[in-house]
Design brief:
398 residues; mainly alpha; Receptor-associated Protein; 2 domains; three-stranded antiparallel β-sheet
Length: 398
Amino acid sequence: MQFVYQARDPNGGIRSGQLVADSLAEASAQLRRMGLHALTLEAEGEASRGGRRRRVRRGDVVYALNQLAVMLDAGVPLSEALQSLAETTPHAGLAQVLRSIEHAVQGGEDLSAALARHEECFDATTIHLLRAAEASGTLPEMLQRIAEQTRADLEIRQKVLGAMMYPAVLLLMCLGVCVFLLAYVFPKLMPIFEGRGLDLPLATKIMMAISNALTQHYWLVLAAVAAIVGSLWWVLKQPWGRARFDVLQLKLPILGTVVRKATLGRCLRTLATTVSAGVPVLEALELAAGVAGNSVFARLWNDAIDDVAAGQQLHEVLRDSPLLPPTTVQMIAAGERSGRLPQVLRKVADFFDSEVHTAIKSATSLIEPLMVAVMGVVVGTIALAMLLPIFKLSTTVH
């Protein structure tokens, strides 16, 4: 394979070029033997794609933070640990980000400042936590804690998405069967029904009209679907549209419970981690609003900032909010009185995470039979609309 590189020589100059190697690790080793320090190194075909930065998955970030924590805890210097990670990671996008961070660290920047250059990979909470850890000299421990928190958050998100996947697949299957029946089977039966001059049932007439629209005016149907999808996408991109969607999301019978508990767990865990790391409470609340992912909860934490700044305690601010259960507010009050707020917040977050798992199982057990029943009713209605004229026709013949 041919690799394209940009590297720094011993004199501090920047050199670019190409080299041939069997793997990324071997190419990196060649550069070291040449006395060069790689800044960017990638396969030639990948480097020619317009210079776009590759997407780094959250799982890759967890891997990097965890490995970095282990190496720093073992006494490996930060720059050397970053270089080793960049050379050994199988993820090309992550390797590119790590080399950029290593270059910044070698230039004298703190790790938190270097990571802040890559906000697409590392959120504001991570940056603030690392900044506090650098000041207190607890960087390895904080990296490990951030990795664990990010992994827990990722697992919750994956469970929520996984619970939604099965109903979505069933819905697509149902839609596919309906389109097949209406666009392919029905048009073959319509000439028979019309030729016999049968008095068709209302359901059959409705299905014939839908079938005719799908086959004769499919471009109008596609245009209407595209217009609806485009309009929904545009509305969700607007602040007012997103706010209304977030409110609706929390009011949904099954999904709303899951979203509410998952959001509470994520926000409270962020508060626990940031406060225990020495981040001021006002900044911690701002970070909790940033990770909420729902404008209703973000507004809750942003409103709390002003009240806490005015001298109120956190539990007093949250007491009248319908978003938090009264028992949660009572536990926060107990944590503030005992001076163990971070520990209490972490336990409450753990509780909500376990509740999310239970809610997902309950939701799945309810949604699956419900979706099967809906599919049966829809497909059964279409099938009945086809079969009724056939039964009527057979009766007429006899």
